[in-house]
Structures are given as C-alpha cells and as structure tokens.
Specification:
The complex is a heterodimer. By secondary structure, chain A is an all-beta fold. Chain A is built from no helices and 12 strands. In chain A, a hairpin with a 4-residue loop joins strand 8 and strand 9. Classes of the chains: A mainly beta, B mainly beta.
C-alpha cells in the first residue's frame, strides 16, 4: 500500500539551529511531493512542492527540500530556524497514476526563543 | 481572494446521532477534497470531487458517511449514525483545475462524539 513516513513526531530546537525533517514514501511510480505547514491556530498551507526538474526546491520563509529519487525521500530543511517556525509540518505525496494525495503523520516543531 | 469556508467550526454530538458539515471552496476551483484528521495523525482523504463527479471515495465509510457536491461548487459531508471513533477534525480543501493538485485548506470542523 502507498504510504508516507515522517521520522520524527516531535522536534525541539533553539533559535538559529538548523532543521531537517525526514520524509520517505513507498514506491509507486512518478510522484508529486509537497510539504504543508500548520501554524498554531491557522489553516494548513503549502510550504513548497516538487513536480519535476531541479530536485532541490525552495519554498516560503527560507525553507527548502531535496527530492532524492533513489531513496524515495523528500526531506525538509532550513539552515536557521526562528521562533515563528513553531508549527506542525506535513509531508504529502501524490502518486501521478491516481488521484489521491497521501499525508504523513506530521512533525511538531517547537523552537525555543 | 476568499479562502475555503467551512461550517460549523465545532460540533458536539452523541453517538448514533447524525451530523452534517458544509464547505464552500475557493471560487473557480474544480477539485474539492474532504479529509478526516484524527488527533496525532495526518489528514486522511475521505472523498475527492472533480467538478461534481467523484474521482476517489475509496476510504469513505459508505455505510455511515455520504458526501455530495451539487452544481460543482459547495459540498456537504454527512455522518449518520456517528460513532465515537468519528471524533476528529474534518478538513475541506480545494484545488484549481491545472494546479498540479496543490491544495488550499479550510479551517476545519472539530467533531466530538460522546
């Protein structure tokens, strides 16, 4: 069955620390990849997406993600986090052979000021 | 641009009662999704509409859940009868026709079944 795995459920960092959140998906052919973020009290919103081309994609607020096809991974990174990055982050995968987008369980990030 | 609207925001019902949620997507968005998000989990797709046709409802518990999207615009999700395990946040999202399935989410409806 198609699945998405996020390795860390909770991450606590100090401001200015570097961030990397892991995301792996099961093989299923060509994929579209997404990271969504939910800030406290707000809606889920798109952080960045990958469809094709350069496997290193840049999103809003200094976030980037790298698609490594051989590892079925799409890890999210930020070189220096801020307190305002405290949120829950979801990796999502759409297998292009179908319609459904599958979400990971999410990673709650808390950044200490 | 107005976002995805959902109502109600919160609902508390007893088990075996029925409940309905409403969603109005962003104007012009052809695709509409209903997700169930249980505490501690990611959103799980219940049903996906393309205009007013269903393209995926493989994870919709059809014995108790139903959804419709009349005229290809707003949508209603119903649960009848509710079970305790239906307690969750129900999210509605929409996508434009040629977006590559980037989704715009509403605020969700938090359902508590007692």
């Amino acid at each position: 069955a198609q699945s998405v795995s996020q390795h860390n459920h909770h991450v606590i960092l100090s401001e200015a620390a570097s961030l990397e959140l892991g995301c792996n998906y099961s093989y299923g052919g060509t994929v579209n990849l997404f990271w969504y973020v939910q800030y406290p009290g707000q809606h889920l919103q798109l952080l960045l997406k990958y469809f094709s081309g350069d496997p290193l994609v840049k999103g809003i607020k200094g976030f980037e993600a790298e698609f490594i096809k051989s590892k079925f991974s799409f890890n999210l990174r930020k070189p220096s986090v801020q307190w305002s990055d405290t949120a829950e982050y979801f990796c999502a995968v759409r297998y292009t052979g179908g319609f459904k987008t599958i979400f990971g369980a999410g990673t709650r990030l808390f950044v200490k000021a | 641009e107005a976002g995805v609207a959902q109502s109600p925001r919160y609902k508390i019902i007893e088990k075996r009662q029925s409940v309905a949620f409403w969603c109005n997507p962003i104007s012009g968005h052809a695709t509409l999704y209903w997700y169930q998000q249980i505490l501690g989990q990611g959103p799980k797709l219940l049903i996906q509409f393309q205009n007013n046709g269903v393209v995926d409802d493989s994870q919709l518990p059809k014995d108790r859940f139903s959804a419709e999207r009349l005229k290809g615009v707003d949508s209603t999700l119903k649960i009848q009868p509710a079970k305790l395990e239906d307690s969750a946040v129900y999210l509605c999202a929409s996508s434009p026709e040629a977006s590559g399935y980037e989704q715009y989410f509403g605020p969700g409806t938090r359902l508590t079944v007692t």
